[in-house]
Records
---
Amino acid sequence: MIYHLHELLTKMGAPEVREKNRLQWHYCDAESGAVAGFADIRLEAGGERLVAELEAMRSDEEKQTSPDHADEDKFYLLAERTARPNYFRVLHISFDGETYTRPSKSVVELGLSLFHAKALDISIRMVEQSFNKQDMLEPREESTGSRLILSPRLHTASKPAETFGVVIPFRPRSVSLSSL
């Protein structure tokens, strides 16, 4: 199947690859710290090839409900530019343990939508981890009164109130318009 580059990238949820030439997301396993999922879309060979790869660990629930009971989701797409500028022919696509060479339009559409959904999940997990990483680096403890006890680092960062200088309010002078 032949697609316009913008159409392919939009269906994968990454139209900005056209300007950046590469876009990638990843998240790490909370226990081991190893990469548990990644998605990568890139233009190679000076924009002649489009490659999309995805690999993500499945949860226990996903393993049980999937027909292949695989431990991870894998996706791979290879498309090459045709003679027409910005048009690409999908040469190879693989997902759910199946590999398709010269795939039909319906297989490509299904693969692109699966990639988009899983890449979105990976990017959400990546953002969650980046926010939670700050919480992990600076743990905060709660007292029984449900008040926050600030860490010593935060106490030193706050400035004490300045005690010099006194402000005395006074009435402004009355100015007549004729003197201006």
---
Amino acid sequence: MAASVLLVPSTSVFANPPTSAAQGGMYHRFQDFDWVKYTQQTLDDLKGKLNLKPEQMAAWDTWATGVMTDANQHQEKAKAARDERASTKKAPMDETTPERMAGEIERLRAQTKWMEAHLEHLDAALVRTKTFYEVLDAEQKTIFDLFWTVVHHRLYGNDRWQMPMHMFRPRMMEGDQDEKSKQ
């Protein structure tokens, strides 16, 4: 079907965020990744695929502005959190057991606060998305749904955070196994 060609995302939009061995681990996977640039490229790609009609542009502009606002806020908060962690980092071995326990409790409380704020942002994003989605025709809804499915799977793999994409090993086809893997 011709519509499936539209759903193949452009390479630049889905390029894996750069990682290096020096960064170490999944935690640093997106540390220097430019979420604002990535989000804008993704929106540009989606807008082209949706082939929006003039009467749909106001809804697109409202929705896309909200998405970009979220991306900017995410990037600013992530940088502030990295800067704060770097300035307050203390070697765990320099702390007493009660200090380490108190630090863990503080970290969990901060994480809970972040999750609550994130839920508020997601609730607002859901309202914006539903409003925009309602102005799309059936074909555009299909394109929108498939596009975001691809984006989600490219970023996170399946339905949850998993190992970074560069760590996934493709399954070998039957007969492609070397002698060691057959043992």
